[in-house]
Design brief:
Keywords: Chloroplast, Membrane, NAD, NADP, Plastid, Plastoquinone, Quinone, Thylakoid, Transmembrane, Transmembrane helix, Transport. It is a multi-pass membrane protein. The protein is an all-alpha fold and 80 residues long. The protein has one domain: Helix Hairpins (Orthogonal Bundle). 81% of the residues lie in helices and 0% in strands. Helix 1 packs antiparallel against helix 2 (37-54) and helix 2 runs antiparallel to helix 3. The chain is elongated, with a radius of gyration of 17 Å.
Length: 80
Amino acid sequence: QEFVRPDYQEYLSNHALVLSAFLFSIGIYRLITSRNMVRALMYLELLLNAVNINLFKGNIFSIFVIAVAAAEAAFGPAIV
């Protein structure tokens, strides 16, 4: 009898998609209902991180998210 190794890559990929969808839905809901601009930026960052989890092989988009995070870091304290 031959031992069959389970495919862990597909298993982890499915969990990453579920986590990404969960974070994205929370981010959309909170972004729409947020009245505070700083919190809205925080939930926008949550949305971008959810997309990053979904596209964990997309290097270009990760650089875009880092650039947006840097812009938020510069813009966030100016609001306060």
